[in-house]
Backbone:
């Protein structure tokens, strides 16, 4: 465990211990929080997290990640079918529905998967509130015909309870002086917001489960307080839960601690990673992800039409370049500015989350924005993909494309792409050289293909479609 990781998880445990007696309906509030966002605007923490001196400002120290996971596993265990629970009893499981809860639109189940595996008579799409406008369909969620239920319709007035909890927070904070987290002016603001959301969510979820029979819940993530609270209430009421893996486990902070009964993961990489945290074989299962099933369906547009609409130059290899905002901006600029023979390629930039042209598209006449085109269409029609440490690298390899990763490791990086060897590295100039070699050197091209196949054998092994495997898991847990 490096210094940054030790400091981060130690600070997390310090938060849990300081506020552990802050409870509502028997649930310790800090265990349900989204920890990272509590420090979203605390520049001091992020600037000093890698310092050896930081730990001296804390009274708790975590020396391994396994300890951190065990703390949460023990907490959850105290709530599983808890005797003396302050919650209402759940509705009968007879004809219980499968509930999908898609926090922050991370589920991304394709329409075809929804139609095939989640019939409207047996499925509920659970949302936080009833949107005033028709919700935008994101990768098939919500699917036409599948009924939506809204948690805010089960809300009750608990404002007085929330005020009492806020008062207790003030009392606890007053006992600290110069604490890097608790005495930061933004901490209390964000903690208050999450307390309010968690208390309301406990009440909403409990009432929902009392009135609606649920056989199983599938989450896109349990990292956020909205979904984590549902998962913990479900545990206490005896409702099984599954958490999908919404992206590669590149950063440990995004996937610890594990909360759901079963995490549906991509491969043995994740199974082994979770086992290192002390989790049992039953806690994780290789499912893959249903959205990856769509990769094998082929593009929805012809290559000629795509090139025409992107206004690409004819008879050139297309390189799909995956970036994320301004992250690694200097390296991507070096990649473009020093790409010997760049005029032999059409470089199409896909910026994560954004449709507007990335500023790098102005660097060269051979660089183009991806416009409105879907990622999988761009992958299918590309000749090569270069990416930051992103799930797109895995998706492109599943689509049988050569992939190079501009891999700049960070302190909490899991080493996900290390198995690619030199194909994943921090030097953009070496990557440009390898790209050129790929198109002129058959032996190197064969080496890249061998590495792709070897990587997939451990990162996403071939098996029956992920949608089928997920349904098998749901049926097993629900019955």
Residues:
């Amino acid at each position: 465990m490096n210094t940054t990781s030790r400091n981060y998880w130690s600070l997390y445990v310090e938060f849990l211990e300081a506020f552990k007696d802050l409870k509502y309906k028997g649930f310790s509030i800090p265990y349900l929080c989204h920890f990272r966002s509590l420090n979203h605007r605390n520049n001091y923490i992020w600037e000093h997290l890698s310092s050896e001196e930081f730990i001296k400002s804390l009274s708790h120290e975590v020396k391994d990640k396994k300890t951190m996971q065990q703390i949460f596993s023990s907490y959850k265990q105290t709530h599983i079918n808890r005797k003396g629970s302050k919650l209402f009893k759940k509705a009968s499981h007879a004809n219980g529905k499968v509930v999908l809860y898609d926090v922050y639109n991370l589920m991304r189940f394709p329409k075809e998967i929804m139609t095939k595996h989640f019939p409207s008579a047996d499925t509920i799409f659970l949302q936080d509130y009833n949107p005033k406008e028709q919700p935008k369909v994101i990768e098939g969620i919500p699917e036409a015909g599948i009924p939506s239920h809204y948690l805010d319709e089960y809300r009750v007035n608990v404002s007085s309870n929330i005020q009492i909890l806020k008062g207790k927070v003030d009392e606890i904070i007053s006992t600290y002086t110069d604490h890097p987290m608790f005495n930061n002016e933004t901490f209390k603001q964000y903690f208050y917001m999450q307390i309010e959301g968690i208390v309301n969510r406990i009440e909403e979820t409990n009432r929902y489960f009392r009135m609606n029979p649920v056989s199983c819940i599938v989450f896109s993530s349990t990292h956020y307080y909205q979904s984590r609270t549902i998962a913990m209430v479900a545990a206490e009421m005896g409702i099984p839960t599954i958490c999908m893996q919404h992206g590669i486990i590149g950063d440990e902070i995004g996937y610890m601690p594990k909360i759901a009964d079963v995490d549906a993961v991509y491969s043995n990489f994740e199974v082994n990673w979770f086992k290192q945290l002390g989790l049992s074989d039953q806690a994780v299962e290789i499912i893959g992800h249903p959205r990856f099933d769509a990769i094998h369906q082929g593009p929805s547009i012809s290559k000629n039409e795509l090139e025409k609409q992107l206004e690409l130059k004819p008879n050139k290899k297309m390189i799909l370049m995956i970036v994320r905002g301004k992250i690694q901006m200097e390296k991507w600029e070096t990649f473009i500015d020093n790409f010997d023979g760049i005029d032999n390629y059409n470089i199409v930039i896909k910026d994560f989350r954004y449709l507007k042209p990335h500023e790098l598209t102005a660097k060269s006449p051979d660089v183009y924005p991806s416009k409105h085109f879907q990622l999988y269409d761009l992958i299918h029609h590309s000749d090569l993909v270069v990416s930051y440490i992103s799930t797109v690298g895995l998706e492109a390899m599943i689509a049988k494309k050569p992939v190079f990763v501009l891999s700049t490791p960070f302190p909490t990086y899991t080493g996900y792409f290390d198995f690619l060897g030199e194909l994943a590295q921090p030097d953009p100039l070496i990557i440009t050289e390898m790209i050129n070699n790929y198109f002129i050197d058959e032996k190197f091209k064969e080496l890249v293909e061998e590495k792709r196949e070897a990587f997939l054998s451990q990162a996403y092994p071939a098996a029956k479609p992920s949608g089928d495997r997920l349904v098998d898991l749901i049926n097993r847990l629900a019955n």
Summary: The CA atoms of residues 350 and 375 lie 8 Å apart.
